[in-house]
Amino acid sequence: MLAxxxxxxxxxxxxxxxxxxxxxxxxxxxxxxxxxxxxxxxxRMIGNIYYVGSRGLAAYLITTPQGHILINSNxxxxxxxxxxxxxxxxxRLSDVKILLISHAHFDHDGGSAEIKKLTGAKYMVMDADxxxxxxxxx
Length: 138
Hints:
Shape: globular
Structural class: alpha/beta
Number of domains: 1
Oligomer: single chain
Order of helices and strands: HHEEEEHEHHEH
CATH class: Alpha Beta
CATH architecture: 4-Layer Sandwich
Distance between the termini: 33 Å
Strand content: 15-25%
């Protein structure tokens, strides 16, 4: 299980240096942002890894008996969608113990402050990104 988390996390964290989006941009400023808020059916990908994001922004839930790991919180407005997706799969948001953020861009960490408030989850994020993630991507 740990190996799966490390492999998946490594790939996500590698995106941090890609410079794909400016963390100060807002969703409205980007051309395909409608997809970012459109619901997408949550589903099991493989084993204990589930897709819980929107059509255009990925978020993953890794389930374990010790508590779940949520990878990315997407936009601040994504929190209800992520919660609903987790619940549709038969899990509880309150069982998320770790919130792993791939990198500090509003489209990956915007819901972090709210999810932490709802779950008490521990952040896993690169040191330089802590202030942005703790502010909910602001």
